[in-house]
């Protein structure tokens, strides 16, 4: 399967080191990619999100559908680092936090075979902001793929069946990536290879708020007007990886 022609991708964001500030940064990243997708005319739908405090994400998973989505965003995978003064910081000190991003192509069922006996499926009530139970029916789905230990979940759909299908879609995407990168070794090594451990020293890009500067360490380039970029105007960065 040619991944360059993939029109459906999985976006996964995880807060790294930095406590609440890392969760807030994960929120900012999620909103940035959502706004970028809307500007590109792509479909963006949230699959699963684990919130942390006020306006923060521990984890965030979404599906993006549209022409050129994978090619535009595939270089976003890795550890993103933010340097800024948190709103709770009284002495004006700059804090450093991280969030990990993974971009995975979503594949058809025929491309990755998943055996029912390899799955451990559990159901729960879908939770809302602040831990509220917004659904009295157990529609949220969690799937453990026993051979690899991969755990996926979906709780944004309204029915148990729809969430199960979404969770399986995520699982196939992760298994497909594992098959593509067999030379890496184990699945755990694969995920470390793609999104890093979330440590501050492992970074592909730094967002420096005091200096209004984004530095992509792979390109060796600096981009300014950061607020504009965080509003979803990512083309100047993505096009640097895909010059016409």
TrEMBL record:
Family annotation (PROSITE patterns): RF_PROK_I (PS00745)
Instruction: Report any Pfam family annotated for this entry.
Output: PCRF
Q: Which residues form the Prokaryotic-type class I peptide chain release factors domain?
A: 125-141
Quote the InterPro entries the UniProt record gives.
Answer: PCRF, Pep_chain_release_fac_I, Pep_chain_release_fac_I_sf, Prokaryotic/Mito_RF
What's one GO-annotated cellular component? cytoplasm
Whether Acyltransferase counts among this entry's keywords is no
Matching SUPFAM superfamilies:
Release factor
Supply the alphabetized keyword list.
Methylation, Protein biosynthesis
Give a GO molecular function annotation for the protein: translation release factor activity
Described by its record, this protein's role is as follows:
Peptide chain release factor 1 directs the termination of translation in response to the peptide chain termination codons UAG and UAA.
So what family is this one in?
Answer: Belongs to the prokaryotic/mitochondrial release factor family.
Which protein, by its recorded name, is this? Peptide chain release factor 1
């Amino acid at each position: 399967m040619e991944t360059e022609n993939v029109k459906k991708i999985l976006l996964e964001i995880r807060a790294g080191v930095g406590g609440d500030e890392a969760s807030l940064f994960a929120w900012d990243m999620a909103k940035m990619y959502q706004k970028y997708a809307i500007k590109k005319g792509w479909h963006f739908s949230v699959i699963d999100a684990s919130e942390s405090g006020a306006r923060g994400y521990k984890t965030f998973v979404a599906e993006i559908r549209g022409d050129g989505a994978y090619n535009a965003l595939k270089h976003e995978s890795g550890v993103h680092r933010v340097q800024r003064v948190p709103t709770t910081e009284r002495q004006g000190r700059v804090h450093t936090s991280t969030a990990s991003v993974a971009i995975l192509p979503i594949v058809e069922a025929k491309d990755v075979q998943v055996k029912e006996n390899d799955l451990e499926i559990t159901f729960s009530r879908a939770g809302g902001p602040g831990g509220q139970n917004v659904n009295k029916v157990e529609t949220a789905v969690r799937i453990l793929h026993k051979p690899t230990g991969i755990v996926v979940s979906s709780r944004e759909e309204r029915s148990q069946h729809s969430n199960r299908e979404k969770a399986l879609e995520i699982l196939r995407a992760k298994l497909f990536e594992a098959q593509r990168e067999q030379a890496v070794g184990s699945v755990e090594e694969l995920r470390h290879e793609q999104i890093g451990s979330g440590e501050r020293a492992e970074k592909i890009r730094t967002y420096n708020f005091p200096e209004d500067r984004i530095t992509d360490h792979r390109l060796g380039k600096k981009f300014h007007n950061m607020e504009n970029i965080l509003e979803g105007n990512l083309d100047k960065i993505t096009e640097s990886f895909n010059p016409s």
